[in-house]
Design a protein that fits this description.
It is built from 10 helices and no strands. With about 240 residues, it is mainly alpha-helical. It has one domain. Helix 1 crosses helix 5 and helix 3 packs antiparallel against helix 5. It is globular and about 55 Å long.
Length: about 240
Amino acid sequence: MIKKILLDTCVITRIYYFQFRDQIARFLFFAFLIPAGVYYIANASTRRDPALGLRFFTASILLSFSMLTIMWLGTILVEDRFYGRLKLLMTTPISRTSYVLGILGYDYMLGLMTSSGFILVSYLFEIEVQLNLLDVIILVLLTLSSFTGISIIVSQQAKNLQAGTVLADSTSICLIFFAPVFYPLDELPKAMQYATSLLPTTYAADGIAKSLSGKGGAGMDMLALLLFSFVALFTAIRSLRWRDF
């Protein structure tokens, strides 16, 4: 049973990877061009303060993840649903668990390529980063897991293709700009501070920033993201209108 789930997971990952090969230009646009532009605009406005520069660098990484995993992939999942591609997968002996894990594997591939690119850029452009590699990898994978679950849930809530695209885009934007990603938590009103505790980006931003600055203490952020990932992926599996074989 486990072997079949793993094999089916690899099949789903490969299916989405083959789509990715034809959209590399779009990947570069969402993964690097827009986040890099946002980073340089934000960093220039602070006269290149190192502490704020690291915050904006972290925020740009999360913006990239959000745009790739929720905005871009979420739109693809919505299209799969309304163009009938998802129904084709349902007629095969692939479980919805394998489907979700396959998408997660595809997201891991995109996210690890993206984060590696950002780390390389940080050294090329002399951004002050003191990398705690293991913590960064764990936090990146947990962030991608929660984003993947949210993306699948969003794709299942849309009533039509156009609404699904808008829902994916707005969810992606809200996760970044309504959480303390580009700004510190204490600058928000008290009510908003409590509300942001329900967003995975709050913990991802805090944990990744600590790991990129060489600091420890990201354990609670990892635990919070692990909980978000479990809930999001479990809900994503249950939300799929699927027939298990």
